[in-house]
Design the sequence.
């Protein structure tokens, strides 16, 4: 723990030593509005307007902005491709902001934040494919944050690839068209006689070849073609997409070069830490200012009031020092008296007790109600009840939150590992009371996102500290700060009832879901089953009830929000029904999916039951579903659809007499459309399997009196190498538009493993993490 | 005066830094930011450096403990003309990284392993690398990269 106060949780009201600061009240806007900005960020990512794709009307920028509230000033597709690059020069070909070709070579801009999902490589690959550039000739650079030039620039919702697929292909094709036009004029041949490949325009008849870099100057004189007039490549002719390409930053990474937020340095920079109330939202009454100010290396210490908004600026104490260590050392000696009237008093054990009562009565709302569930239950041959529960979890990205900020002359410059630089600019401007045009953000590489860095509290804190201190600072959170001030994935409770008819078919399904709310009339991020959660829409009789418990500590998006827990519940319970029916799980799952159809007509990002059945059958086939397993070993199957990705997984698991499990292998079958970077795609799936397993095994965040009870990796364990299963991956390389892979591979993992444990032992797991039921690796 | 031998160069530091964890001396005082801060309590491995060839967690070792000893950080692995080691090259060839934050610590751990055990088995790799967390879950690739590097080292030996 970074401070003695944190270690004990909320301190008793013992007087703080030394001179006391005046009581610093925290402003308290209306309770609901404290969460508004934070939740707008999530909405933008989780429920974006439909993205463009073949056969759909052109992406409406206006509708997107209205639907998402994201990125004021951002311009979409057609607008982006006409936007003038910031630094166009006459000797370079720069038909749009995404690329620049000159005598030195080919430069491509990676527009979105790189959080480990691979977009700094995969997005430029899309441009290079249509440009017909040789990948070895390409230099990739992180794009500046400039919505007018690049459109929305965020990393979330597995949206980077689908949102930019058309735009980036057109960006490359536009440049290629101009290069061909320039070559045609130089060679005095019709453009139709020319072809392109490997950064060359080729005239096959004469054998003449001209390098792009030698044509850039001339090509720049041609008009930029209209996006609608461009002819994009047929997939059959792809040379780069679908191959394995190593990440563009890998050379710099293995040399330890400064890429991440935490690596940034500016002249005269000092180092800052920020101590907030362990119970989120508490204010500073007093603290031992004089004692801290005298500590070695400390330059300044002061309290900040905050703006009262979660995920922006909460009250706390900033220490500015000559080194990170001097700041951390001083923080450990802080003695603070917190004012707790605004602080969270959340308690996990209290919530679990409330849920225990609520699960026996109908929920507050019916968020899905198809057919007549009550009649189905009354007519059923068999009914089955089960109670599932899962704990809160933390993002625990390995790079603790940090941000470098430099306030000067009424403006601020930030070097930030943020997933949402657009939102970050607005948040910082709001906190400092300046116009967003006075906020400049430099996007850094990010040491893990998982949804945590959709929220920019570290940016607003750094900006406010720099302004108050009057110079450049790098704010550094400790691991303990990070774990106590996350925006957590909420826990939840599900009382399920299912029924089987005389033929053993699933005839009715009721999920009585007990979730959490921040008291603003809506469930927390990832705690809402109202948007077509499986098996709603698939069964004739299905009801989902939803009741929300009050919860103050902010909850946020965690990799595959909602899906990461709903998958565990619904795919586990479906297996229970198959077992109760005495039928094969695979057969029942395919029966529930039914014949091939879109679940939302006209939305190509909706569940398609045919694509779903295909991945289920493929995973089963590749895993040898149905084969006889040795004693104590079983196969478990699960399917889940999220972020437009269809995924089925089969886990092969052994369990010993002490409930120690070994996950030997996970077979994954997926349909995410065309694969962009095969290496990156496989890496995301392997990582999702590990992440899913890590979370289900032992990760749990609990709260008492609003204080997080876990602090570091000793109380919040991460899966390590010896327990990593083999992962066997099969992509159905379909012709549907591609989706991102940061998230959708994760949700089926936990139910597949738990179903395998059942197959191995006959013991059903209905609680996450499974360590609570005595399992370990 | 505190003297450290970092990547073959003697670096002199104020005695005030004696109790500072080596991690922060490397990062803040010497500008060697390839060594990463992850947990601060030596259980994640992100801060791994070599001390006289042995892997240590620099977040929990005072700089004074490294006085007069050879410290090798990620920045010191490649040759002077920039040639990568087989371990570093394997990390690129197999596209190991996702976010990449833990990978410098992983590479230092792998480097130490292969120096003491040039042909490790899977179990030996697992045991040696169990102290390094990869939050993105790239363990399968890390293991494979270590084996590739071991093979390449064998061929060049």
Sequence:
């Amino acid at each position: 723990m970074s401070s003695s106060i944190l270690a004990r949780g909320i301190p008793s009201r013992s007087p703080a030593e030394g001179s006391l600061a005046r009581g610093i009240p925290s402003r308290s806007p209306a309770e609901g509005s404290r969460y508004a900005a934070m939740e707008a960020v999530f909405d933008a990512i989780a429920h974006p307007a439909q993205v463009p794709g073949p056969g759909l009307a052109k992406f409406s920028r206006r509708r997107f902005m209205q639907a998402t509230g994201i990125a004021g000033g951002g311009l979409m597709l057609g607008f982006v491709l006409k936007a003038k690059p910031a630094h166009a020069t006459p000797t370079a070909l720069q038909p749009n902001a995404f690329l620049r070709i000159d005598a030195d070579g080919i430069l491509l801009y990676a527009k979105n934040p790189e959080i480990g999902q691979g977009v700094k490589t995969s997005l430029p690959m899309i441009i290079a494919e249509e440009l017909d550039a040789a990948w070895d000739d390409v230099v990739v650079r992180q794009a500046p944050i400039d919505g007018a030039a690049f459109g929305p620039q965020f990393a979330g919702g597995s949206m980077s690839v689908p949102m930019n697929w058309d735009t980036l292909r057109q960006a490359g094709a536009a440049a290629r068209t101009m290069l061909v036009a320039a070559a045609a004029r130089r060679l005095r041949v019709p453009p139709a006689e020319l072809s392109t490949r490997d950064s060359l325009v080729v005239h096959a008849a004469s054998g003449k070849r001209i390098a792009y870099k030698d044509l850039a100057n001339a090509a720049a004189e041609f008009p930029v073609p209209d996006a609608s007039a461009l002819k994009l490549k047929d997939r059959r002719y792809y040379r780069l997409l679908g191959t394995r390409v190593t990440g563009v930053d890998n050379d710099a990474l293995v040399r330890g070069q400064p890429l991440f937020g935490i690596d940034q340095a500016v002249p005269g920079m000092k180092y800052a830490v920020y101590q907030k109330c362990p119970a989120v939202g508490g204010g500073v009454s007093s603290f031992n200012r004089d004692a801290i100010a005298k500590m070695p290396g400390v330059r300044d210490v002061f309290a900040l009031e905050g703006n009262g908004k979660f995920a922006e600026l909460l009250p706390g104490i900033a220490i500015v020092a000559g080194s990170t260590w001097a700041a951390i050392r001083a923080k450990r000696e802080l003695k603070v008296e917190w004012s707790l009237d605004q602080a969270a008093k959340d308690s996990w054990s209290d919530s679990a007790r409330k849920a225990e009562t609520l699960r026996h009565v109908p929920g507050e709302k019916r968020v899905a109600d198809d057919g007549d569930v009550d009649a189905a239950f009354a007519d059923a041959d068999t009914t089955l009840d089960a109670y599932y529960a899962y704990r809160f979890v933390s993002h625990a990205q390995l790079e603790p939150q940090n941000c470098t900020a430099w306030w000067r002359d009424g403006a601020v410059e930030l070097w930030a590992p943020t997933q949402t630089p657009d939102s970050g600019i607005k948040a910082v401007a709001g906190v400092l009371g300046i116009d967003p045009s006075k906020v400049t953000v430099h996007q850094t590489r990010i040491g893990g996102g998982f949804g945590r860095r959709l929220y920019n509290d570290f940016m607003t804190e750094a900006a406010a500290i720099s302004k108050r201190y009057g110079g450049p600072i790098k704010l550094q959170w400790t691991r303990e700060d990070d774990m106590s001030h996350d925006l957590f994935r909420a826990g939840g409770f599900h009382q399920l009832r299912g029924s089987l008819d005389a033929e053993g078919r699933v005839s009715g399904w009721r999920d009585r879901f007990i979730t959490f709310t921040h008291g603003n009339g809506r469930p927390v991020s990832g705690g809402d089953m109202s948007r077509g959660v499986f098996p709603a829409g698939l069964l004739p009789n299905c009801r989902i009830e939803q009741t929300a418990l009050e919860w103050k500590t902010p909850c946020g998006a965690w990799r595959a929000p909602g899906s990461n827990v709903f998958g565990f519940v619904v795919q586990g319970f479906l297996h229970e029904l198959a077992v109760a029916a005495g039928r094969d799980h695979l057969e029942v799952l395919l029966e529930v999916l039914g014949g091939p159809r879109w679940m939302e007509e006209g939305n190509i990002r909706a569940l398609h039951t045919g694509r779903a059945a295909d991945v289920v059958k493929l995973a089963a086939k590749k895993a040898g579903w149905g084969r006889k397993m040795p004693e104590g070993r079983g196969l478990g199957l699960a399917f889940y659809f999220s972020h437009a990705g269809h995924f089925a997984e089969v886990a092969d698991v052994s369990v010993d007499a002490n409930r120690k499990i070994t996950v030997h292998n996970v077979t994954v079958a997926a349909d995410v459309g065309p694969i962009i970077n095969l290496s990156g795609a496989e890496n995301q799936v392997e990582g999702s399997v590990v992440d899913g397993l890590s979370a289900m095994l032992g990760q749990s965040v609990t709260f008492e009196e609003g204080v997080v009870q876990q602090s570091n990796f000793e109380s919040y364990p991460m899966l390590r190498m010896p327990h990593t299963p083999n992962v066997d991956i099969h992509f159905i390389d379909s012709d549907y538009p591609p989706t991102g892979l940061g998230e959708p591979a994760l949700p089926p993992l936990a139910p597949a493993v738990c179903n395998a444990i059942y197959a191995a032992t006959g013991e059903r797991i209905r609680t996450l993490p499974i360590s609570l039921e005595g399992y370990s690796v | 005066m505190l003297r450290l031998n970092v990547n073959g160069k003697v670096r002199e530091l104020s005695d005030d830094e004696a109790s500072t964890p080596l991690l922060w001396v490397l990062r803040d005082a010497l500008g060697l930011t390839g060594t990463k801060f992850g947990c601060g309590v030596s259980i994640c491995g992100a801060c791994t450096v070599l001390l006289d060839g042995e892997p240590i967690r620099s977040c929990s070792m005072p700089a004074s403990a490294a006085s007069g000893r050879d410290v090798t950080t990620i920045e010191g692995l490649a040759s002077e003309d920039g040639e990568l080691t087989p371990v570093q090259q394997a990390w690129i060839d197999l596209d190991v990284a996702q976010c990449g934050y833990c990978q410098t610590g992983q590479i230092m751990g792998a480097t130490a392993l292969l120096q003491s055990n040039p042909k490790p088995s899977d179990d030996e790799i697992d045991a040696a690398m169990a102290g390094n967390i990869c939050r993105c879950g790239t363990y399968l690739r890390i293991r494979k990269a270590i084996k590739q590097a071991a093979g390449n080292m064998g061929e060049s030996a």
About this structure: Residues 1-27, 49-79 of chain A have pLDDT under 50 and may be disordered. Residues 651 and 666 of chain A are 4 Å apart (CA to CA).
